[in-house]
Write a structure and sequence with these properties.
heterotetramer, A mainly alpha (93), B mainly alpha (309), C mainly alpha (497), D mainly alpha (101), B: 309 residues, mainly alpha, 11 helices, 0% strand, globular, C: mainly alpha, 20 helices
Chain lengths: 93, 309, 497, 101
């Protein structure tokens, strides 16, 4: 039962993230939306892992790897945004 | 019951996070979302992922976001939210809905199948050198994925180094000794926790990622307290930091190559030595992850100047 | 050396030097050039040895299981050999040309590094033994070519780069989607002559969906009709890049993918049975006519050539879609012949631009008197494109015509005829103008490049060599070592047609 | 002796509920107060007490000494970090106020 609830939650997160990505007006919003989506994907993997006890370790390891990749991407995206902002500020000066 | 409430809270926060036009608020909500998601994952019997999400996905990501926020332009007034939707609006909504339906049906289809790799994992667990299945998958069965992931982390950091712009803002100077004293007292404890998490990873939830996250926050605290820490000015420290950045991937690949010569194949270890090699790799990986994550947060600080790393 | 070593060696012979080149300081020109040319020669040597081995019946296969059901696999079969030898020869020539072309421009290490990676990705596309590997190298090719397209860093080239990325990344994800669906349906076995989809009991609807998805993914690079928009825009790249993109790397990767898709995934008989080849045939025919038509009205020389590429690459798809031995021979030959002809044209156009600053068709008046050798090469390339016997282009068009006749598709014959006329209509006036038009009172002198030749030696000889190839490939088409002989052998051996 | 355990369990539950009440009050303060200093006040006071009560309740229910000790360590660390963080926030608020009077 709880597995079903959480897979719905995961779908909800993906859809909300997608919606946010489409309506984002700021780079930061886009990054947040993408991360909301990725949280949904991770959760979906974990619900699939938890269908039968004991929980499947392979999707869990995938999620662990995914979290680190996601933060790398987030940090890179933020660095790009900072650079963009700095260059725009420079061109306005 | 708890699950339902948690789900509703998560969805509400996610909705708010993408709806709000206040960027600061969006970030704060995002951090809270990360915490709740971590909680949900403990409910899904995934303590490893929950630990990592709380520390990295909420904690360090939050620090990154908040530090970057101050260096960004405001939401531009010209592209104000709520601008008139074009005639295509309905089309996109339709597409969005169709995708949602497709996902629902896909997930429903998955629910009825029952493919699990766990029996295979458990069958080989005794040969893996560790007793915790997640660690066995990460560092033995799918070691290549983890090595590549470290490479991604390193690559992302190198790209950020190239994109670096020196911080322009001044930050209020630190007053008093409270933070310094506290950090001095807490630092040994944090290192201890990091080592403990690393050691524990072989038999229970924990491991290089979680340990690396703790190390990263230790280093960040050192920097925040303006203590003489790992800065480039100090002699061989610079070389040490660079070695730390590269260490995770390098050690991983070297041990992986060793497997070729020992006849266990690339990224394979002989069962009797597996435990030792995994511990070695994990130590290097934790150090690398910690250094890389902390470096990423550091360069995003509004007052960070080049030459410190 | 085991036979699994060779595919990797071919891949590494350009990838490793490429990676090293990134770290060579900008000023070490000789070192970089030596490394580059050396690598190109080694690669050519390897590929020739491979082809000889292949002819002697050797098989080359390398694979590495990434996870159960998903294997990274490389193989060298006759089809891959065709593409490999094309890329190896033209890489050597364009490298020489690029060394001369970029003599005084900045960021040369970056340029040559990505240039080498681009060729490695092309080799990977050629040798991919299954769809999964193919998709990976196909994407790597996109990533390796983008820095080349935007190399100059001007706002114009950055804008073109954005368009390029938008097209290729979207198509890449569509390709991935198609590959994933196919993987879900039947898994990802190796490419097999005759295809692996027949008798799998997959619903025709799914076969169509997958085909369309994969065709969209491949069609962008191959510049099929609604998806060709990036190609003329990417003309802002330096001339050697345009030459490589158009003749070998990008468009050919798309066309080559279509060949693999139809011949070795679906199987030609099965594909025509479910009717997907008809879709391909119509798209290819439309693209051929449309590209030629647009080329007629372009006043910019490179853009005219770009639309000509749009048109000419679809000959490959057309030949494949005709679903008969002659059509297949024509299409496959055209992979090589179009490459050789097009690279001649682009290198010559680059010479005009670099030596005299000529970019427009109207400025070419009388250029034949100032640069006779370059113009001679250009003329051979253009005549080949039109299909003048006995040049290279004639051979492929002849077989395509035979294929259309054999398939009973008379309208395709009409398309070929119209396209040939249009080709003549946009090339012949140009040639006339170049040779017989009145030269301007004084030629602009942007650079004095050479005292001996009409332009820098490194710029002059590559197009001359390829122009010779255009003649030789046409004249000696019947020999075993020529393209026609090879392709006939290939078709006979691998497809039993 | 089992009635002692049951009693401790119930006592623990009650203490935890009390702690939760303080958490709710603290959160309410965080949401309702308009100035950062006030919010900080609500959070540090109420949440520290709330955390203390929750931990205490859990200690009463703890199955063994080791778990109880771990909980107490958690509580101590929580206290230290809360004090430290509120000190830092307060300090930055102070400097901010001095800068823009």
């Amino acid at each position: 039962m709880s597995g079903l609830i959480y897979s719905l939650c995961a779908l909800g997160l993906v859809m909300i993230g997608l919606y946010g990505l489409a309506r984002a007006h700021h780079g930061l919003q886009q990054l947040l939306a993408i991360n909301v989506m990725s949280a949904g994907v991770f959760m979906l993997l974990l619900t699939m892992a938890a269908r039968h006890p004991p929980a499947d370790a392979v999707p869990q390891a995938l999620v662990l790897t995914g979290i680190v990749v996601a933060i790398s991407a987030l940090a890179l995206g933020l660095a790009l945004l900072r650079r963009l902002a700095a260059e725009e500020a420079e061109s306005h000066d | 019951m708890l699950d339902a409430i948690l789900t509703l809270l998560i969805l509400a926060l996610a909705w708010h996070c993408v709806r709000t036009t206040d960027l600061f608020e969006a970030i704060v909500v995002f951090i809270a979302l990360g915490m709740l998601v971590a909680l949900a994952w403990t409910r899904l019997q995934a303590p490893d992922a929950a630990l990592a999400e709380a520390a990295i996905g909420a904690g360090l990501a939050g620090a990154l976001l908040l530090a970057s926020l101050r260096q960004m332009p405001e939401m531009s007034a010209t592209r104000a939210p709520g601008a008139k939707t074009t005639g295509l609006g309905w089309f996109w909504w339709g597409l969005w809905g169709a995708l949602g339906l497709a996902l629902v049906s896909g997930v429903a289809a998955i629910q009825t199948t029952s493919v699990s790799l766990m029996p295979q994992v458990q069958a080989h667990l005794s040969d893996s050198g560790v007793t915790h299945p997640v660690t066995a998958v990460l560092l033995n069965f799918r070691a290549l994925d983890t090595a590549l992931e470290l490479a991604v982390l390193l690559w992302a950091w190198m790209a950020q180094k190239q994109l670096f712009v020196p911080g322009r803002q001044t930050v209020y100077p630190l007053q008093g000794q409270v933070l310094k004293t506290a950090v001095k007292a807490l630092l040994p404890l944090m290192v201890l926790v990091a080592v403990y998490l690393l050691w524990r990873g072989s038999s229970a939830p924990g491991g290089a990622f979680q340990s690396g996250a703790v190390l990263a926050s230790a280093w960040l605290m050192l920097w925040l307290a303006q203590l003489p820490g790992l800065s480039r000015k100090q002699g061989g420290m610079r070389l040490g930091i660079q070695a730390g950045w590269l260490g995770g991937v390098t050690v991983f690949l070297l041990v992986g190559l060793l497997g070729v010569f020992q006849g266990a194949g690339f990224m394979g270890y002989p069962p009797d030595q597996a435990g030792a090699w995994i511990l070695l790799i994990e130590s290097a990986a934790a150090l690398s992850i910690g250094l890389l994550l902390a470096s990423m947060v550091l360069v995003s600080m509004p007052d960070f100047q080049e030459g410190t790393l | 050396m085991s036979s699994s070593f060779w595919p990797l060696a071919v891949l590494m012979s350009s990838a490793l030097p490429g990676l090293v080149i990134f770290f060579i300081p900008e000023t070490r020109r000789t070192l970089r050039s030596l490394l580059n040319i050396g690598a190109a020669l080694v690669k050519l040597q390897l590929v020739v040895l491979l082809l000889l081995g292949l002819y002697a019946g050797e098989t080359y296969h390398w694979q590495w299981s990434l996870m159960p059901g998903l294997t990274l696999a490389l193989k060298v079969d006759a089809l891959a050999g065709l593409f490999l030898i094309l890329s190896a020869v033209l890489w050597l020539l364009t490298t020489l040309y690029a060394i001369g072309y970029l003599e005084h421009s900045p960021h040369r290490s970056r340029f040559f590094g990505f240039f080498s990676l681009c060729v490695s990705a092309t080799a990977g596309v050629a040798m991919s033994a299954n769809l999964f590997t193919f998709v990976i190298f196909y994407e790597l090719l996109t990533l390796a070519t983008w820095p080349l397209v935007v190399h100059r860093g001007t706002p114009q080239s950055l804008a073109a780069g954005r368009v390029y990325l938008r097209y290729t990344l979207i198509s890449g994800s569509v390709l991935l989607l198609g590959a994933v669906i196919l993987h879900g349906l039947v898994g990802t076995p190796d490419f097999v002559p005759g295809g692996y989809l027949a008798d799998q009991g997959v619903a025709t609807v799914w076969l169509w969906v997958v085909f369309v998805l994969l065709l969209i993914g491949l069609g962008v690079k191959a510049a099929l009709l609604p998806l060709h928009g990036w190609l003329p825009k990417a003309m802002v790249a330096p001339a050697p890049v345009s030459a490589l993109l158009h003749a070998v790397a990008v468009v050919k990767a798309g066309a080559f993918g279509i060949v693999r898709l139809v011949f070795e995934v679906y199987g030609i008989e099965f594909a025509s049975e479910i009717g997907v080849t008809d879709l391909l045939l119509v798209l290819a025919a439309a693209t051929i006519v449309y590209g030629s038509w647009r080329a007629l009205f372009e006043t910019d020389l490179k853009r005219r050539l770009a639309f000509s590429t749009v048109s000419q690459v679809s000959y490959v798809a057309l030949g494949v879609a005709l679903a008969g031995p002659f059509g297949a021979i024509g299409g496959l030959i055209h992979i090589v012949h179009q490459g050789v002809m097009k690279i001649t044209l682009f290198l010559s156009a680059g010479n005009y631009a670099e030596t005299l600053g000529i970019h427009k068709v109207s400025e070419m008046s009388g250029v034949g008197q100032r640069m006779p050798w370059t113009t001679a090469a250009f003329t051979l390339g253009a005549l080949g494109m039109i299909g003048f016997p006995p040049l290279a282009g004639f051979v492929s068009k002849w077989y395509l015509g035979l294929g259309a006749w054999e398939a009973g598709a008379n309208w395709v014959l009409a398309v070929l005829l119209v396209s040939g006329l249009l080709n003549a209509a946009y090339f012949l006036p140009l040639l006339y103008r170049a040779w017989f038009g009145p030269p301007p009172p004084a030629w602009p002198q942007p650079k004095t490049l050479s005292r001996v030749f009409e332009t820098h030696g490194l710029l002059l000889f590559p197009p001359l060599i390829t122009a010779m190839l255009v003649v030789l490939l046409g004249l000696f088409a019947g020999l075993n070592i020529a393209t026609l002989g090879w392709v006939q052998w290939l078709i006979h051996r691998e497809f039993g047609l | 002796m089992s009635w002692v355990m049951v009693g401790l369990d119930w006592l623990g539950a009650g203490v935890i509920a009390l702690g939760v009440g303080f958490f709710v009050a603290g959160t309410l303060g965080l949401l309702r107060f308009d100035q950062s200093i006030n919010r900080l006040h609500a959070l540090t006071k109420a949440d520290t007490l709330g955390l203390g009560l929750v931990v205490f309740g859990l200690v009463l229910q703890a199955p063994g000494l080791a778990v109880g000790l771990k909980l107490i360590i958690v509580w101590t660390l929580g206290l230290v970090s809360a004090a430290l963080v509120s000190h830092l926030i307060g300090q930055s608020l102070c400097s901010q106020r001095q800068e823009e009077p």
